[in-house]
């Protein structure tokens, strides 16, 4: 007999709660690498080590590094010339390392290698005389960094299908496209399809630009959302890949909430809920996942289960300056 989850006379706290935990979730190889770069820089050079922009989009991670001696700034001119500086995992325009070199600064590039791959593709496409249509979210650090790899006017940003309709190019022009690495797989596929329909001559990248971690986390949510009454996504509001996980769940017809810490959970969210899914964006540490599960266990008796779709084994090398 099913538990009366929607019966207002029932004490919800006495009802069992199934907690499905998505795998993979949380930190990806690029985030692991970026955080380790800051930590090793602190060990090698001593505090303070400056970081241009948030190293990753997670307040818990940023606060933890700040406590160890990292100082986060928005622009390079806030960094003393004799202090080491780390560029964030999202990547930076070419003008940033150029300025660091001009000032003879010690700098470490924590750009995710998969973002760097997109940067190199952009350079090659420009060399071939192609105008690049870049699919991404305006204002996101990764988009700013990627568009800053090529001369102004050689890359056009599109965010939606409607943007594709307003592009001014003809079918005779040499075009190519690239994408931000943390987009919705499904939404991006629709935009790419529209681009190729309007511009049959457009050149696609040799491989998928959306990173393995983004794709894998979205697939894991798809695998579990249909069995859930509610999905909790641990991540920051400015984390593109975390927001996409919320959208994926909602597209599956399951309500989802984006939270940064367990303290944000409202016990009333669990009213009428028999199964809850838990996942985390690529910038959220496993510690926060356990914190959320423990909080759910305080509110209800839980049956914890893992929903694994793929095992991730990706590891990225550290910059040579930190390994020699």
UniProtKB/TrEMBL annotation:
**Keyword set for this entry?**
4Fe-4S, Iron, Iron-sulfur, Isoprene biosynthesis, Metal-binding, Oxidoreductase
**What pathway does the annotation place this protein in?**
Isoprenoid biosynthesis; isopentenyl diphosphate biosynthesis via DXP pathway; isopentenyl diphosphate from 1-deoxy-D-xylulose 5-phosphate: step 6/6; Isoprenoid biosynthesis; dimethylallyl diphosphate biosynthesis; dimethylallyl diphosphate from (2E)-4-hydroxy-3-methylbutenyl diphosphate: step 1/1
**Which residues does the annotation say bind [4Fe-4S] cluster?**
28, 112, 211
UniProt enzyme class: oxidoreductase
Q: Which residues bind isopentenyl diphosphate?
A: 57, 90, 140, 239-241, 283
Under Pfam families, the record lists: LYTB
GO process terms (BP): dimethylallyl diphosphate biosynthetic process; isopentenyl diphosphate biosynthetic process, methylerythritol 4-phosphate pathway; terpenoid biosynthetic process
Give the similarity note.
Answer: Belongs to the IspH family.
**PANTHER family documented for this protein:** 4-HYDROXY-3-METHYLBUT-2-ENYL DIPHOSPHATE REDUCTASE
Give the protein's recorded name: 4-hydroxy-3-methylbut-2-enyl diphosphate reductase
